[in-house]
Design brief:
By secondary structure, the protein is α+β, with helices and mostly antiparallel strands. Strand 9 and strand 10 form a beta hairpin. The termini are far apart.
């Protein structure tokens, strides 16, 4: 009886230990709250001061070339007009140090509806030394007013996708840089085949002049119909310490029909159940042609 009791105690201890070691995953509400606070800050303090207050020390915006948020907004006058946005797509890494939201925005510098500018934004956030989310990257594209409300997709981190923590994810980012470069090389061979291989089935695509596209099939149909071909070059990347969420950005030269134009791109990467990196979101922002 004593041996049985001892065995039961040992099993209970192991069970409690397993429960204690279960990862405490972050919640997507953390980044949604950060976006809501940012939105309210813009309404209260204006665009310039709000961006300066939430900016990561290395945060960048695309104006149209990438420039530090603090540098750009420190050197401009108070930006007129009102800016509002609504997150429709959001993820956060399992340990909460990297997150993003995306969705429609409205900018208005006037009093009538004719003064409104519509589009989609993408914001990437990462935690600072105080575990507070700060704005690491922000860019947007313009398109006509959307005919219908976009699909909302907020998901919590999936513990089944977790791998061993990375010791230095934001500096030691070789996996994401290599994956981004492989995708760019693949694009130069076949644009459609590349998206079929790398784009998540739930992936979203933001292209200037067009409403948000959701799903691999919809994106590939758009690329085919618009006769799009892409060459691109990686600039930089980063990933979460839990190795389940990452980003990359760079420059692209896109041929659309007979028109060739220059763009910046930003990609959000998510690891899938097979521990393969898929593009969860891609956005292109236009750059003036040379």
């Amino acid at each position: 009886m004593r041996k049985i009791f001892s065995a039961a105690v040992i099993l209970t201890c192991f069970a409690n230990l397993a429960i204690a070691q279960k990862p405490d995953l972050a919640h997507v509400d953390k980044v949604l709250k950060a976006e809501d606070n940012f939105n309210k800050l813009v309404a209260r303090k204006g665009i310039k001061d709000a961006f300066l207050e939430v900016a990561d020390v290395e945060g960048i915006v695309f104006k149209p070339q990438p420039v530090k948020i603090t540098e750009f907004y420190t050197n401009i006058d108070k930006q007129p007009g009102t800016l509002t946005w609504v997150p429709k797509f959001a993820r956060i890494s399992a340990n909460g140090d990297l997150a993003f939201t995306a969705g429609p925005y409205v900018y208005q510098n006037g009093k009538t509806d004719d003064d409104k500018v519509y589009g989609n934004y993408v914001s990437i956030w990462r935690t600072d030394e105080n575990n507070k989310l700060k704005l690491l990257m922000d860019l947007g594209i313009q398109h006509p007013e959307a005919e219908q409300d976009g699909v909302t997709d907020f998901q919590e981190p999936d513990s089944s996708k977790l791998v061993a923590p990375s010791k230095d994810p934001f500096n030691g980012k070789s996996v994401i840089l290599a994956t981004d470069k492989i995708f760019n090389h693949s694009l130069s061979i076949s644009t459609l085949a590349s998206y079929k291989e790398f784009l998540s089935p739930q992936g979203r695509y933001y292209f200037p002049g067009f409403e948000s596209m959701v799903g691999q099939d919809r994106v590939m149909k758009f690329i085919d119909n618009e006769a799009i071909s892409i060459t691109a070059e990686t600039t930089d990347a980063g990933r979460s310490t839990s190795n389940d969420l990452a980003y990359s950005y760079g420059t692209a030269r896109i041929t659309k029909g007979q028109v060739v134009s220059n763009y910046n791109y930003v990609r959000i990467w998510e690891i899938d159940k097979d521990h393969k990196w898929d593009i969860l979101l891609e956005v292109f922002s236009a750059v003036e042609n040379e």
